[in-house]
Design a protein that fits this description.
Shape: elongated
Largest sheet: none
Distance between the termini: 31 Å
Radius of gyration: 22 Å
Structural class: mainly alpha
Strand content: under 5%
Length: about 250
């Protein structure tokens, strides 16, 4: 319970399910506001939809990024590593709003263009972390695995990926955290996210709505980021614990 992730997560959940209880206090901050709490959708509904969009896009980005990194670190794909990095970097140079505007004519309004934009922005951190992690595996370890009779696939799954896991997870952590913040723009094309109160607040000159959406998005991103930090620490401690049990 001393871990920050528990306290930040508790505040995030308390605000998600108890935002309406803050209405009297928000009246002190915004005395001229007629509507002090966003009501077009409940905040648990907004958080659930936001998490679903971000999670779906992150899974696709992780699958693409890991696959590209594995391909680029195999003998058949090393010549394409620079090209793959360039393509993913170029994808991130497009503003998210521009990506949504280009995707809407073909994908329509709602969740699909939002997921498409999040995937484009999420692939590069995953692939970069995977390339760095797989590239950090010592050559002596790989030679020992080959000498022990590992197949290429067996070496990848049993040696390379476990050793590279902390660095790969750091890339995934960055990708997911960025996705949580970027997903707010999905509300501009009709997706239900924590950006909905922000967009409504900006268009209706209601700073209370903007504050509610902004605070929840920030707490959501920080909670997830701290959660990934706990998993990374567990992965770093695991090898030493395993070796001590072996001894």
């Amino acid at each position: 319970m001393r871990r920050p992730v528990f306290w930040v997560g508790a505040v995030f959940l308390a605000l998600t399910f108890g935002m309406h209880a803050l209405a009297p206090h928000l009246g002190f901050l915004f005395p001229e506001g007629a509507r002090l709490v966003y009501t077009r959708a409940s905040f648990p509904e907004l958080v659930a939809s936001h998490a679903l969009l971000t999670g779906a896009a992150s899974l696709v980005a992780i699958a693409i990024g890991l696959s590209a990194a594995v391909f680029a670190t195999r003998p058949a794909g090393r010549d394409y590593a620079a090209t793959l990095e360039m393509l993913s970097a170029v994808a991130q140079t497009f503003p998210p709003v521009a990506v949504l505007a280009l995707a809407v004519p073909s994908l329509g309004y709602g969740a699909l263009p939002t997921v498409f934009a999040l995937v484009l922005y999420g692939v590069l951190p995953v692939m970069g972390g995977a390339l760095a992690g797989l590239g950090s595996v010592p050559g002596a370890v790989l030679d020992a695995a080959d000498g022990a009779g590992f197949t290429p696939g067996g070496r990848l799954w049993r040696i390379e990926l476990p050793l590279a896991a902390p660095i790969i997870l750091a890339g995934i952590r960055t990708s997911v955290t960025i996705g949580i913040g970027t997903a707010t723009i999905g509300s501009t094309v009709g997706a239900l996210t924590l950006g909905s109160p922000i967009i409504d607040g900006l268009s209706g000159d209601n700073p209370a709505f903007v504050l509610q959406g902004t605070v929840l998005v920030a707490l959501f991103a920080v909670t997830v980021d701290l959660g990934f930090g706990e998993v990374e620490r567990a992965l770093v401690r695991q090898p030493s614990g395993a070796s001590s049990r072996t001894r």
